[in-house]
Design goal:
By secondary structure, the chain is mainly beta. The protein is about 0% helix and about 50% strand.
C-alpha cells in the first residue's frame, strides 16, 4: 500500500524559509514522477514543482528562483525547500507520485501540510 506523508509545514514570516518533506512508503523499485502541489482556499490544486522520470526538474513561474525540489531515494523522501516565502505562498501543500504522468490525475497523494506566511 502506497503512503505519502508530508511534514514541515507551519507558520513563517515573509522572507523566511521552510523545508517540506514527503516520506514515501510502499512504492515499488520502479521510477516515479514526483511532484509538489498546493491549494489555496476555494481553488483547485496547482503544480508547484516536479521531478520527471528522467530526473529533470520543473517549477511554476511563481516559485522559480525561490523553491527547490529534491529527493533522496535512499530515504524515499521528497523535499521542497522554500526560501524567500511570500504571503501568497500560504496554502496547503501536497506531494504526489505517479509512474508515468504529472498532473492532477497522479496516482498517489499525501494528505497535505499547511503553510502560512505572515507579512
Amino acid at each position: 500500500q502506497v503512503q505519502l506523508v508530508e511534514s514541515g509545514g507551519g507558520s513563517v514570516e515573509s522572507g523566511g524559509s521552510l523545508r517540506l518533506s514527503c516520506a514515501a512508503s510502499g512504492l515499488t523499485d520502479s521510477s516515479y514522477c514526483m511532484a509538489w502541489f498546493r491549494q489555496f482556499p476555494g481553488k483547485s490544486r496547482e503544480g508547484v514543482a516536479h521531478i520527471d522520470l528522467d530526473g529533470s526538474v520543473h517549477y511554476a513561474d511563481s516559485v522559480k528562483g525561490r523553491f527547490t525540489i529534491s529527493q533522496d531515494k535512499t530515504k524515499n523522501t521528497l523535499y521542497l525547500q522554500m526560501n524567500d516565502v511570500k504571503p501568497e505562498d500560504t496554502a496547503w501543500y501536497y506531494c504526489a507520485a505517479d509512474p508515468l504522468v504529472v498532473g492532477l490525475d497522479m496516482a498517489y497523494w499525501g494528505r497535505g501540510t499547511q503553510v502560512t506566511v505572515s507579512s
